[in-house]
Amino acid sequence: MKEKIEQIKQKSMEEIKESMDLKTLEDLKIKYLGKKGELTAILRGMKDLTSEERPVVGNLVNQSKETLEKIISEKEAEFKRKELNKKLEAEKIDITLPSNKIKRGSIHPLNRVIEDMEDLFVSMGYDVVEGPELETDEYCFERLNIPKGHPARDMQDSFYITDEYLLRTQTSSVQARTMVANTEKEPIRIITVGKTYRREDDATHSHQFNQIEGLVIDKKETNVSLADLKGTLEIFVRKIIGANLDLRFRPSYFPFTEPSYEVDVTCFKCGGKGCNLCKQTGWIEVLGSGIVHPNVLKMNGYDPEKFGGFAFGTGIDRLAMFRYGITDMRYLYANDVRFLNQFDRKDEE
Length: 349
Known about the structure:
- The structure is a single chain.
- The chain is α+β, with helices and mostly antiparallel strands.
- The protein folds into 2 domains: 2-90; 109-343, Bira Bifunctional Protein, Domain 2 (BirA Bifunctional Protein, domain 2, 2-Layer Sandwich), CATH 3.30.930.10.
- The protein has 11 helices and 9 strands.
- The strands form 2 sheets. A 7-stranded mixed beta sheet has the order 1-4-5-9-8-7-6, with helices on both faces. The chain has a two-stranded antiparallel sheet with strand order 2-3.
- Helix 1 (2-18) packs antiparallel against helix 2 (22-33), helix 1 (2-18) runs parallel beside helix 4 and helix 2 runs antiparallel to helix 4.
- The relative contact order is 0.10.
């Protein structure tokens, strides 16, 4: 029995050393050490041995198994090491070669401006409020002091879904909704940003465009005044368009504010000297503003004798055009990569 165990051991060691791959090595492991392996078969036949022979044979078999397991483990590690080196060699990258340029995305110019405006107004204590793009005639017009038949509707009656519902023509509807929802009559300081829709489509207008509007409402004793409006807009314009711009307030008319003002800034192209962009005036109109009309306060649940405030609004698309020198608004919506990849950079602080 001792000779047989030694023969199996020597034979298995030779075959393991001569094995060329992991598959062959695994087959040999099963052949000699598996449940039906040759050494395991000897252990099963120990019942036929005498009580003196059993411990001797059992010890020899266990020693042989330990030796074979060690050799198999070393051989297996050798195969795995060779396989890994082969894989690393095949996948080796020559880092001295120039890399392929990776196409990077960029934030859309409109989103750049929106993010900057929201950051600015949030830092000034404003809340950002959203509202529906499919709006009722009541909130889009009537609660803003624009009743049916009002001339101001002529340029805004645009995309009606039914007689009552239309795609909003201005984000001012969110101001009305905010006032109505504020049943506790807490002070309001909000901006609203979003898409609006009108029947316009040329180089400086689009049937879909983005607006930002701001609203501040508080009790009369807080003295929210035109001076507060002017200071707010100076910070806004100089942060978003240019730090060295001057502002000019011109009396104007809006149904929802009284008094109302158009706000101009010095032309960023010529510095106010006069050019084709500003039509030789030195000024460019950027937004509308004013003190909230008493009728708007009353229709949305506020006593105009006790409350007051100001509102302002402008088109974000035009601000993006001014900021980046974009000559045609339609570029903003054309999804032309040649145009968009120009904004793959960080804006100057």
